[in-house]
Specification:
single chain, 441 residues, alpha/beta, TIM Barrel, 11-stranded mixed beta sheet, two-stranded antiparallel sheet, 15 strands, globular, binds pyridoxal-5'-phosphate, binds iron/sulfur cluster
Length: 441
């Protein structure tokens, strides 16, 4: 049977077989070997702390190897010197240079990893559903309508973003307490929680799983129709890191067929696609992948964080949103980088984030203004930086919740003192001399 959302016959893409390079095999990347020795040494050192993984597609088709040091995709994938503090970097680099035994280098890397905050927004304690006092692993239920499900086989990615807040999981500092291998646990939860309308499969990257395994998680929803689920979403970066997943991989058609079935069963299917830079939308394979997804009737909704050194440029966002619309995808969120890992290296101050968003937003058609941001996924909720303004002689940030732990907080405007260095909600103080923000009461 040919998948209905097929239309692949109209798209002429040569197949490619997947190959991943990891920390252990980083040296075997031909383009990498040719880099200047300082870049080489830095990456060798930092990749002992931060995870590295890249697909051959990223290496061959996304990175511009003529000028890697300035290349946004190179910086997105390859660990950078500035991601460690100067002291940590020097300490580890000198041990690497001295040829210390592997065990010593590992221990030093571990020490540095432990210092970085791998758990933003109270994820390990809050939001984890309980059933009869028992914690249910592999699920997160923070906002009333949406349950996040972390299938155990989907907790890695085809390539790793240097800014990822899940890095601790990829290097094994975290156990996979967060993952669940039992599709029935999800069904039971949905039956008991009629307020849930959306299931969001996330990771890592859930679409790294084989189509057969994805089906094992999804089919029970289609058959049992638990609770009041209306939408099935996948949070993924596959269209950016391995678009052949949707095109020529041997189980690509099976996945498209499953997507057809989700839609035929009357569910809204959303592929929440992470695109960091316009470059990721420019290859033939990426374009074909998005077109094919859209042709199933799925909504491709695009989101990414704003990252210093990688995409802190309004023209990048403008082009990205325009390209997304032209491919039939929907710009959805611009996030502010979370307070975790090598935060100093990547963060953009809130005031600057607001300027970048506004400059890009004001240059695109209304069809691209479906995007919301810049938004912080903070402990109390998703907080939108909605304006920079002056009231009563005081310069302020206007903020509001677009998602909140307590639904009553949503869409209520509140104010913080303007602070040009603030990069996160925790850095802000309430305006008008108030002691606390309303949600802290
Ligand atoms: C962003 C997010 C969601 C989804 O929110 P939408 O605004 O519906 O896309 C769900 N759960 C958590 C924990 C989130 O951070
Ligand atoms: S694709 Fe997502 S989960 Fe994977 S490394 Fe990038 S940000 Fe992290």
């Amino acid at each position: 049977m040919q998948a209905k959302g097929g239309r692949l016959s109209k798209i002429n893409i040569k197949s490619k077989s997947y190959k991943a390079f990891t920390t252990r095999t980083i040296e075997t990347i031909p383009q990498f070997a040719a880099l200047p020795s300082e870049i080489h040494d830095a990456i060798e050192t930092v990749s002992r702390v931060m995870p590295f993984r890249a697909s051959n597609y990223v290496i061959d088709e996304l990175i511009d190897w003529d000028r890697p040091a300035e290349d946004p995709i190179f910086r997105l994938i390859f660990p950078q010197k500035g991601m460690l503090s100067p002291e940590d970097y020097d300490s580890l680099a000198s041990k690497v240079r001295a040829g210390e035994p592997e065990a010593v280098l590992k221990e030093e890397a571990r020490r540095i990893q432990q210092k970085m905050n791998p758990h933003p927004a109270g994820q390990m304690e809050l939001n984890v559903p309980k059933c009869g006092g028992e914690t249910i692993n592999g699920m997160q239920h923070k906002y009333r309508e949406t349950v996040l499900f972390f299938p155990s086989q989907g907790q890695v990615c085809h390539a790793y973003c240097t800014y990822c807040f899940r890095w601790a999981q990829f290097v094994g500092v975290d156990d996979l307490r967060f993952a669940c291998g039992d599709p029935q646990a999800l069904i039971t939860y949905l039956k008991n929680h009629p307020e849930v309308t959306d299931v969001l499969f996330t990771g890592g990257d859930p679409l790294i799983m084989s189509s057969r395994i994805i089906r094992r998680y999804v089919e029970p929803i289609l058959k049992e129709r638990p609770g009041n689920v209306r939408s099935i979403r996948f949070g993924t970066k596959v269209a950016a890191y391995w678009p052949y997943r949707f095109l020529t991989d041997k189980d690509a058609d099976d996945l498209i067929r499953l997507f057809d079935e989700i839609i035929d069963a009357g569910y809204h299917l959303a592929i929440m696609s992470h695109f960091t830079h316009n470059r990721e939308l420019e290859t033939d394979a990426a374009k074909a992948a998005i077109r094919r997804l859209v042709s199933t009737g799925a909504n491709v909704r695009c989101q990414a964080p704003l990252i210093h050194h990688i995409n802190d440029d309004p023209q990048v966002w403008r082009t990205m949103w325009e390209t997304q619309v032209s491919l039939g995808a929907v710009p959805y969120y611009m996030f502010i980088e979370r307070d975790t890992g090598p935060k100093e290296y990547f963060s953009v101050p809130l005031g600057r984030a607001y300027e970048i968003f506004t400059e890009a937003y004001s240059q695109v058609s209304g069809l691209a203004r479906t995007v919301r941001g810049p938004s912080m996924s903070a402990t109390p909720g998703k907080v939108l930086v909605d304006g920079v303004t002056e009231l009563g002689g005081e310069k302020l940030f206007a903020l509001k919740f677009i998602q909140a732990r307590d639904p009553k907080w949503v869409n209520r405007l509140f104010f913080a003192k303007y602070d040009e260095n603030a990069t996160w909600l925790d850095d802000l103080t309430p305006a008008f001399g108030e002691k606390k923000f309303f949600f802290e009461a």
